[in-house]
TrEMBL record:
<dbReference type="GO" id="GO:0005829">
    <property type="term" value="C:cytosol"/>
</dbReference>
<dbReference type="Pfam" id="PF01063">
    <property type="entry name" value="Aminotran_4"/>
</dbReference>
<dbReference type="InterPro" id="IPR043131">
    <property type="entry name" value="BCAT-like_N"/>
</dbReference>
<dbReference type="GO" id="GO:0046394">
    <property type="term" value="P:carboxylic acid biosynthetic process"/>
</dbReference>
<dbReference type="GO" id="GO:0008652">
    <property type="term" value="P:amino acid biosynthetic process"/>
</dbReference>
<dbReference type="InterPro" id="IPR050571">
    <property type="entry name" value="Class-IV_PLP-Dep_Aminotrnsfr"/>
</dbReference>
<protein>
    <submittedName>
        <fullName>D-alanine transaminase</fullName>
    </submittedName>
</protein>
<dbReference type="InterPro" id="IPR043132">
    <property type="entry name" value="BCAT-like_C"/>
</dbReference>
<comment type="similarity">
    <text>Belongs to the class-IV pyridoxal-phosphate-dependent aminotransferase family.</text>
</comment>
<dbReference type="GO" id="GO:0003824">
    <property type="term" value="F:catalytic activity"/>
</dbReference>
<keyword id="KW-0663">Pyridoxal phosphate</keyword>
<dbReference type="InterPro" id="IPR036038">
    <property type="entry name" value="Aminotransferase-like"/>
</dbReference>
<dbReference type="InterPro" id="IPR001544">
    <property type="entry name" value="Aminotrans_IV"/>
</dbReference>
Amino acid sequence: MIYLNGKFMPIEEAFIPVLDRGFIFGDGVYEVIPVYSRKPFRLAEHLIRLQHSLDGIRLKNPCSNDEWRNILEQIIANNDGEDQYLYLHITRGVAKRDHAFPANVSPTVFIMSNPLPQPPEELLKTGASAITANDNRWIRCDVKAISLLPNVLLRQLAVDRHALETILIRNQFLTEGAASNIFIVKDKVLLAPPKSNLMLPGITYDVVLELAAANQIPHEIREISETETRMADEILLTSSTKEIMPITLLDNHPVGDGKPGELFRQLHALYQEYKATHMRGQVV
């Protein structure tokens, strides 16, 4: 069951006009929200990020936070699975093709649920491979826009080389992954690129830094050079669906000793504990 413009229906019955600006221009934003034990994870933070994206494209939020919460709870209840991920998609609506914003047009709102895949145990044990590429996307990567063609092309580079992710470098500095945030570890210090218009402010990125601060794990938020990235002792990938994943091979070269590192194991355990607390309803 999905939600489309005020109605719940089977996905097979959902249709959008071809003049929807999301289809014509990629004029819209989206959000992905993991659900554990039928509870949306960090929903308040996801809705803040959604508002930031809407503000970034000058589109009025069609719902209040309470309305979003109610709709999402109904989507969760009407789909199978204790663990799900919600995909929320908002476009500027249907109008005659013209680059300028149309007047008096209602936005298109679409929400669906999919089963939430668990990170593969084998990759958690052995680590995953990644490649690097020049970050050639636009300069408003902090807006979670539906026009994802540059990310798609960069992510496909990794698929072509049987890697999990493409790690992006802009002007000789690390930004993020094609569909993830990236941390590195050097000399037992967790390093994170600072939030800017050149990276998406990840919800899992925030959780990792909160866990590091709460558990006295040395960490810094600063620009990370390409050289530092290649010389890292550990590389960690984070996202709402992959959680925390170790990268142990970068451009066919081992990261550190080529095995998941100590800091990954510590943060992964802390993240699972945090999730369990969330599922018991002790955190929102």
